[in-house]
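@channel sequence for tomorrow's demo:
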Amino acid sequence: MNDRNELGSVVLPGTRRAPAQAREHLAKWLSGLPACDADTRDTVVLLLSEIVTNAVVHSESGCEGGKVAVRAETVQGSIRVEVTDEGSATNAPHLAPIHCDVEGGRGLHLVAAMAEDWGARSGIRGQTTTWFSVLLAGAAEESRPAVLA
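structure tokens (generated this afternoon):
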């Protein structure tokens, strides 16, 4: 699986419904991917939900008329998901310190802990694309060292 294979893409209104809508689209795209087991699907959908929520809450995408774009593909044995928001003049995606008495602020920590890799980049029009990749089950098995008996 060395080639890129687009699973799907969609542009959603930047509303409170965006995370649920994004989850529905991604679950549908992943259902057609035989190499994606239930645990991997659940992980990918959870991480997408966290990033889309951040896009709506912390970027201009959450303002009236704002949009969030979601794109998913397979790349070299992994599922890669990108979420592009309309950017923020004051806030870029980053791992913030966790405070026990604060309800939020853990989404990117989940992404960092559960994804194979993740990151964010700025676009030429001020947008921010936050992405992550998760190994497909078969690729995870292939990447483990052999155990000699």
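heads up for whoever presents: Residues 29 and 97 are 34 Å apart (CA to CA).
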